[in-house]
């Protein structure tokens, strides 16, 4: 079964020729799993790395969904609006799975989870995006999304090195391919928008 991320990469891959024709957490700063809050012992199949991945990826996805909704609503370029809608469509089920894993793994979320998430689009950036329009908004939203995807890929790499919870590893595997596909395309589109 093809994952939501894989379908997204395929869709972006299909857009690559059009984008070109129109001229388109890693080792440092990655959560280590220390300080992860668990109310009871997680299932034996989960490690502290799994817990950190879930706790940090959840607010990361929630913020990406906010930015995606903004892109879909106020993007001036149709490709930006389409990308924003894809974020909402594809990452909503991923966010829902992450929320279910918080319960399954007996985790407790806190506001600090967001600030520890690599590539997290912070409140100041979100506020700036809300105040922008036109090409300035499009470029900023694309580059913020590319940075967010880079952070997600870094967190996924940490999960793949030390996680054992199969559902989290599956999500991390899907996300880990973004540096070779989606991220360069987002940056290229931002550059083309000038």
What do you see in this structure?
By secondary structure, the protein is mostly helical. 70% of the residues lie in helices and 0% in strands. Helix 6 (134-162) packs across helix 7 (166-175) and helix 6 packs antiparallel against helix 8 (182-192). The longest helix has 29 residues, at 134-162.
Tell me the Rg in angstroms.
Answer: 16 Å
Name the structural class. mainly alpha
Q: What summary fits the major beta sheet? A: none
From N to C, what is the helix and strand string? HHHHHHHH
What is the β-strand count?
0
Helix content: over 70%
Low-confidence stretches: 1-39
User: What's the average pLDDT?
Assistant: 81
Beta content comes to: under 5%
How does the overall form come out from the CA principal axes? Answer: elongated
Q: Please, how many helices?
A: 8
Task: Summarize the helices and strands and which ones pair or pack.
Blueprint lengths: L3 H18 L26 H27 L3 H27 L7 H5 L6 H9 L2 H29 L3 H10 L6 H11 L2
Question: In summary, what is this structure?
Answer:
The protein is mostly helical and 194 residues long. It has helices at residues 4-21, 48-74, 78-104, 112-116, 123-131, 134-162, 166-175, 182-192.
Index terms:
194 residues; mainly alpha; 8 helices; elongated; disordered N terminus
């Amino acid at each position: 079964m093809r994952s939501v991320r894989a379908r997204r990469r395929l869709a972006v891959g299909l857009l690559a020729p059009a984008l070109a024709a129109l001229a388109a957490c890693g080792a440092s700063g990655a959560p280590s799993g220390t300080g992860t809050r668990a109310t009871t012992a997680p299932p034996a199949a989960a490690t502290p790395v799994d817990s950190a991945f879930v706790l940090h990826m959840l607010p990361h996805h929630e913020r990406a969904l906010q930015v995606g909704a903004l892109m879909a609503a106020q993007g001036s370029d149709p490709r930006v609006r389409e990308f924003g809608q894809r974020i909402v469509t594809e990452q909503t089920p991923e966010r829902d799975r992450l929320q279910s894993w918080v319960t399954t793994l007996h985790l407790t979320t806190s506001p600090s989870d967001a600030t520890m998430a690599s590539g997290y689009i912070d409140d100041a950036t979100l506020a700036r995006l809300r105040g922008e329009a036109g090409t300035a908004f499009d470029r900023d939203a694309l580059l913020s999304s590319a940075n967010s995807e880079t952070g997600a890929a870094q967190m996924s790499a940490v999960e793949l090195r030390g996680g054992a919870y199969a559902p989290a590893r599956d999500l991390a595997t899907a996300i880990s391919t973004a540096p070779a596909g989606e991220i360069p395309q987002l940056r290229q589109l931002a550059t083309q928008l000038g």
